[in-house]
Amino acid sequence: MSALLSARGLELRFGRIAALDGVDLDIWPGEVVAIVGESGSGKTTLLRVLSGLVPPDAGGVIFDGQDVLGMNEAARRNLMRTQWGFVHQNPRDGLRMGVSAGGNIGERLMATGARHYGNIRAAAADWLRRVEIDPDRLDALPRTFSGGMQQRLQIARTLVTHPRLVFMDEPTGGLDVSVQARLLDLIRALVAELGLSVLLVTHDIAAARLLAHRILVMRQGQVVEQGLTDRVLDDPQHPYTQLLVTSVLAA
Predict the structure, then answer these.
(1) Is the pLDDT of residue 249 over 60?
(2) DSSP H helical segments within the chain, as ranges?
(3) What is the structure's pLDDT at 54?
(4) Domain residue spans in the chain?
(5) C-beta atoms surrounding 152 within 10 Å
(6) pLDDT at residue 117, rounded to an integer
(7) Mean per-residue pLDDT, 35-50
(8) CATH number of this structure's domain 5-83+163-174+181-250, picked from the four choices 3.40.50.1370, 3.40.50.1360, 3.40.50.300, 1.10.630.10
(9) CB-based contacts of 185: which residues, under 8 Å, 6+ apart?
């Protein structure tokens, strides 16, 4: 079995600042990988480069044998509609706020070729149930939902097409602690059920521990430590990782 996504030697500079400095990464089928680090560590930049949104200065990204960085825009959009998904920190970035909840989910299905209105509507209602939203809200606009409901709706829209790889950028950021806990449990259950590969960017060590099989710790554009999540968090070797873990324990 080969890695689903591989990146080698990723470099990206913004002036004198090295946003990415020789980053290597592999994600295997069915694996959840978390990237953790403080603000400015390069974790979100890495996510955007891997997903083809930002070109690096050097390096390569391969998804299932395809050269992501060499794709044209149409091919990359098709990949994002079919085999990839993206869950944004702010659900408003991943939803069409003027389209109903069912319409948001249905649009993603239609992008993969679905055309039967009844089947699309039934699938949308089923996915609302799966993310713990009352199907009676199928025709409601996302702006009438709470922040936690909007995030669950974005997850439903993303996962309805069963993508092979999902990028998640701080999916619980900005939510109340109780809402975060429910959302993390939901994400963990859906990822296991669907056998998804996930790249999770988070500053939340607890979220990384709950969801990820492996963890990468970034600082100043470099991966300073990586390994199985429990090993890295229970026995951190790099001083920066030790500082991150200690700060969480002391909070």
Answers:
(1) no
(2) 43-50, 73-82, 101-110, 117-130, 147-159, 177-194, 205-211, 229-234, 239-250
(3) 92
(4) 5-83+163-174+181-250, 95-155
(5) 25
(6) 80
(7) 93
(8) 3.40.50.300
(9) none
